[in-house]
Every structure is written in structure tokens, then in C-alpha cells.
Amino acid sequence: MLLPRPRGPLSARLRRLLLDGVEEIDDLETATEGHASSVPPDSVLHDEDLQLSLWMIYELSFRGFDDVDDRWEWAPEIAGLRTVLERPFEQWLRDVTEGWVSRTLAVEGDVADKIFALTDGFDEGPDLSRFIRKEATPDHVRDFLRQRSIYHLKESDPHTFVIPRLTGPAKAHLVELQYDEYGGGRPGFLHHELFAVTLREAGLDDAYGAYIEEADGPTLAATNAMSLLCLHRRLRGVAMGHLAAFEATSSIPCRRIAAGLRRTGFSDDAARYYDEHVEADAVHEQLAAREICGTLVDSGDVSVRDVVFGAAACLVLDRYQSESLMARWDGAHTPDQLEAAR
Ligand SMILES: [Fe+2]
Ligand SMILES: [Fe+2]
Fold first, then answer.
1. What's the gap in Å between 108 CA and the centre of ligand 2?
2. How many Å lie between the centroid of ligand 1 and the Cα of residue 252?
3. Cα(26) to centroid of ligand 1, in Å?
4. 339 C-alpha to center of ligand 2: Å?
5. CB 217 within 8 A of CB 46
6. DSSP summary character for residue 215
7. Is 188 left (phi over 0), alpha (psi -120 to 50) or beta?
8. Of 34, 54, 173, 196, which has the highest C-beta tally within 10 A?
9. What is the CA radius of gyration of the chain?
10. For residue 338, what pLDDT band results from cuts at 50, 70 and 90?
11. Does the predicted TM-score (pTM) go above 0.85?
12. Using one digit for the tens of pLDDT, what is the confidence trace for 189-215?
């Protein structure tokens, strides 16, 4: 994968720094500080310059870029920029979820009961999976797959960073969950490889990051949130709450999306990624909420508030992703219209 095209002055300067190292770092840090401190809280999600910059920095810790020296991952300049960019993003996540977190903390029961009360009662916004099952055209489906490829082609990789930060039963259960996500020891069955099959069957490019140029703000933010939560030890409880909500809201939508893929003429192989998640995530939601989050909270390793914050962040980000796609599709049903709406 090559560095993406910039979407504003910050990502342009970060790109130049990573490519040839000639940016004046003090000046870039000052500019980044200025940008990060002046972005209105409700614009953080849609600030594609900020979100793409953060995504570029995080990717240095995942697959990297063919045109960037891997040593940038741990360069102090990059760590400094990352901290500056993360600050408004994390604050926005905390602010936008605060109402949900307070209400959920007041729910009777243990942490798993609270997570399920939150996922059951959350206002999902536009129902993307129902639309895909009943109304979407093949072009809508491809548009959806391109956006989702940003995370699904690295599915579960962020959470692997959390494993060494846990101990005992929570660690054992996270490894159990990740083992499933990575195909249970069967090459070709890693979930991100199953998603690559879906892309190929849909006539799309299955290369990692192939559609980063098309990724909208909410899609970048949803992926960045997982990197943010999973790469910081202090946020391990938040990361596991996010994982629990992710798993708890996957099974039913995956059933609808698989049906939508078949209805629009895609093959069984294309639908297999979603078929696989119907049953797997019904198990994973229990594993994540009860065995991982439950154990972490009971042992005193993380707070209930952290876990609930992570769960709420997952749901809010998913809703914004759905809203963004549905808004783009509103009235755009032909390939040309979809292209124009992108
Ligand atoms: Fe999965
Ligand atoms: Fe899962």
C-alpha cells in the first residue's frame, strides 16, 4: 500500500514528512496543535484531514506503507503528532457518548447486563442492513463493501494489541475469540481473508487499503477509534467494551446483509463472510461481554465506566457510518449517480 493522497494541509505535510523527512517538525507540530485545538467538537468526525492523518500514523503500526520507511513507526516526532491528533478525537468520543454512558451505568445488573441493555436500546439511526437486505442495488452493495474494506481487511488486528495487556481468564478468552477471528488455525479462513473473497466475488479490489481514497470521515474515524483504544494500555477496558458492543450488534445485521448479497445476485462465496458471522458473533458477544469484560471488571482491572464508554463509542460510530452511506445514497441509485455522490 502507498500513502494516500492528502485531504488538507495536515495530511499533506505529514505525507511529505513520511516520504522524505524534510518537513520542519516544530512547525508541523505547531500547525497540528493549532488545527487540533481549533476544530469544533462536532466536526472531528468529518474532519477528513485530521482523520486521514491519524489513520496514516496508525497504519505505521499495522501494515505500513511501501513508500515509507518502517522506522517512522517509533519516531518521536510521529508519537508527538499522534498525541496531538488523538486528543480532540478522544474528547469528542467521550462527549458524544456521555448521555448513553450515564444512562447505562444506572441499569441494574452486572457489566454484561449493562452492555446488552445499551446495545438493545440504542437508537441505531438508519437501518443500513435492512436496506441492503430489501432495497439496495448491486452498486449500493459494492459501495458499502468498499467503505467496510477499510476495517474488515484488518479485522481483529487492533484487538491483538490488547492481549499482552490482560491477564488470567480475560486474556484466555480474548485469545479464544481472536483464534476464531483468525480462522481457528485454518489458512484462508481468517475473517479478513473471507472478506477479501467477498470483495473479489463482487468484482472489487481486495488489496489492503485499496479504497482508502474513498473512505469517508465516519469510516476513517471508526477504524481510527479501534486503533486508538487498542494501542493505548490505559484504554484496554474501553477497547474491550467496544469489542463487546461490536460483537453484540453483528449477528442479525450480518444475516440481513448476506440475504441482500444473494438477492442482488452475488455468489454464496461472496456471502460467506457474513454467513460466518451470524453464528460466530452470537457466541462472541457472550464471550466478549461476560467472559472478557465481566472478568476485567470483577477483578478490578478496569472500570465499568470504561467498558460502557467503549461500547457506546462503538455504537455511535457505527450509526454515523450508516448515516453517512445512507445520506449519500439518498436518491442516488444508478452507477453514475453513485459515482457523482462519492
Ligand atoms: Fe469476524
Ligand atoms: Fe466476531
1. 26
2. 14
3. 41
4. 32
5. yes
6. -
7. left
8. 54
9. 20
10. low
11. yes
12. 999 999 999 999 999 999 999 999 999
